[in-house]
Amino acid sequence: MPADLSLNQNVINMDYAVRGPLYHKASELRKQGRTVIPCNIGNPQALGQTSVSFYRQVLSLLEYPPHINRERTLKGQIRPDIDSQEWIPDYILDFSEDFLAKMETGMGAYTDSKGPLFIREAVSRFIDKRDGVTPGNGVPSIPDHVFLTDGASEGIKCILELLIADENDGVMIPIPTYPLYSATIARLGGKQINYYPDEESGWTLTKDSLEESLSKARRDNVNVKAIVVINPANPTGAILDRKSILEIIEFAGKNGLAIFSDEVYQDNLYGSEFLSFAKALGDDKNIPLFSFHSASKGFYGECGHRGGYFEVRNPPGSQGSNPGFIDILFKQASVNLCSNTTGQALIYLLSSPPPEGSEPYDQFNREKQGILADLYEKAGMIKESFKEMDGVECFGKVGAMYLFPRFNTLPAGKTDFDYCMSLLEETGLTTVNGSGFGQKEGTHHLRIAFLPPKDTLEDVLPRWIEFHNNYVRG
Fold first, then answer.
1. Strand, helix or coil at 225?
2. Run of H or E including 55
3. Candidate CATH numbers 3.90.550.10, 3.30.70.20, 3.40.640.10, 3.30.70.1290; the one for domain 117-351
4. What single DSSP character describes residue 310?
5. Strand 289-294 and strand 307-313: pairing?
6. Nearest-CA neighbor of 297 among 315, 274, 326?
7. Which residues of the chain have pLDDT under 50?
8. Crossing angle between the packed helical segments 207-219 and 242-255, to the nearest 10 degrees
9. What is the pLDDT of residue 36?
10. pLDDT for position 88
11. Looking at residue 1, what is its pLDDT?
12. What is the pLDDT of residue 106?
């Protein structure tokens, strides 16, 4: 029998409800042959969302370059038995060839620890175009302040690891929150400072609620260093308006805080307007800003390829250290050598969509709009079902990939975890209890990803309505 080892209690104390007890119960049911609908996580392709053709065609050529010349050769031959629509467009062949020439060492070699410069330059162009930056108007993105990462999560953990220097350092996070933040702060031994968006006004923010949370932390002698903002929000799906964004920036500047701007759902707007924190911050040089994006969400849904990036604006100084902040980040990234190259390629593709008038443009735009319209329609189907459930309310605009309904009535002694477990066992629908994200005391919620195919929803929603009403009525 091996000797007992002393383990890191911070790791033991971490909680990640998205893949917690409900996920394990769903896995157990699946092994028993039960049908399980995994709405516990934003994993679109696991629930049938098709991949974007442009992305997958390019990736296939990047991973096996001989097919570029093979395609050109075959296209040059007369093949009346093959429909011209089956050929990969010349634009994609040229695009892939150009990418490999710039990559120099192909897809199987390590890259620069930040990611190849030409990809980071593409990311900066993407950011500038998104934010309407032109010569003499707006603050341009700096490629050397962009880091490619294995999904946005790795970048978030990287910055938190740098900022939380001791157990008295704190980070403000929205409640409810994506549990990556609470789990990472716990792992690093820092202090989690909760602030509470107003649910009934659509999860909006007020300066008073921010000031209240900060004042309480400072009374407890916590050294608060940063505020996290997720926009569009996870788990609530809320979309911040311009007023809220500007108030957060004013609050951060007044109190000497850095801003974490988690913007991985910036394409999941369904008609609402997105304003990035980089654009809203403008030329204010006093507030460090860390912005995060990913190829896992949006309309691309390439979760498994783990492509992400973060951008740093106004990097802070570092007490007691000679290297600059960007140099420290580079050293930190170098420990892992580099992010995976397929994810890097996807970030390049995300940043460099086919331009209007190119061969792949129409198909790309049709697939993009089709995926987003389908997501919004499915969100509407689920929201309509809430109207038939006793005591269920769902606030705010539809954003991201989630709905976060509130249960105003549960049987005595039951929690939202109990509800979600019973729902899973009876219907196969896998959700996440609201308490797994944090919530105001005395409230009960769940998060559901609106990703299943419509025919699956048409089957399960009536069963959920029946389950719910029987459950709350006892």
1. strand
2. helix 53-63
3. 3.40.640.10
4. E
5. antiparallel
6. 274
7. 1
8. 30
9. 87
10. 85
11. 46
12. 87
| Cβ-proximal residues to 309 (8 Å cutoff; 6+ apart), any chain | 115, 120, 123, 146, 147, 148, 149, 152, 155, 292, 293, 294, 347
CA distance 39 to 87: 36
CA gap 255, 225 in Å, rounded: 9
**Domain covering 9-48+364-473: architecture:** Alpha-Beta Complex (3.90)
Burial of 223 (0-12, 13-18, 19+ CB in 10 A): middle
If residue 261 lies in a helix (H) or strand (E), which one and from where to where? strand 258-262
Report the sign of the C-alpha dihedral through residues 264, 143, 282, 314, in that order: positive
> Where do the structural domains in the chain lie, given as residue ranges?
9-48+364-473, 117-351
Given this chain, do its domains 9-48+364-473 and 117-351 carry the same CATH topology? no
279-307 confidence digits (pLDDT tens): 999 998 899 999 999 999 999 998 888 99
- Give one DSSP letter per residue of 127-193, joined into a string: HHHHTT-BTTBS----GGGEEEEEHHHHHHHHHHHHH--STTEEEEEESS--HHHHHHHHHHT-EEE
Instruction: Take residue 295 and report the two structure tokens written for it.
Output: 């190829």
Structure tokens, 29: 């049911």
Q: What is the DSSP string of 313-367?
A: ESPPP-TT-SS-HHHHHHHHHHTT----HHHHHHHHHHHSPPPTTSTTHHHHHHH
